[in-house]
Amino acid sequence: MKSIADIRRDYQLASLDEHNMAANPFDQFGSWWQAAINSAIDEVNAFTLCTTDAAGVPDGRIVLLKGYDSDGFVFYTNYSSAKGRHMADNPVATMVFFWKELERQVRITGDIAKVSAEESDAYFQSRPKESRIGALVSQQSAVISSRQMLEEKFAAL
To answer: Structure pTM?
Structure first.
């Protein structure tokens, strides 16, 4: 059996040459984003979000990018979730995109700020009905008491 340590791939598809980099990092991301979109990568907007709790313990999970511009990158979460609490306690995070088809990863670290309440509400209303219901009847990252409780809340909507 092959050792885990022996599993390795020689990545040669995309090299990184600072002479070909955009001066503005958002412009560079835009270029790489378009290449990822053009490559028809499944879940191209999925990235690992890394936050830390109040004690500095890191936590990572996959979330979806919902937008970006020169002001930053946008994703949404329940403010009461673990990541929501982490971001309130320590408003700094790292995002890591891994586009294996392009042999590229993008790592972004910086401060976090909430979008406006209007933007957040508009996004929530754009979600499929079942997704909105799920968000309303359960506390993200929390254990529910029973399936029956969840079904009762769902039926009440």
So the answer is: 0.80
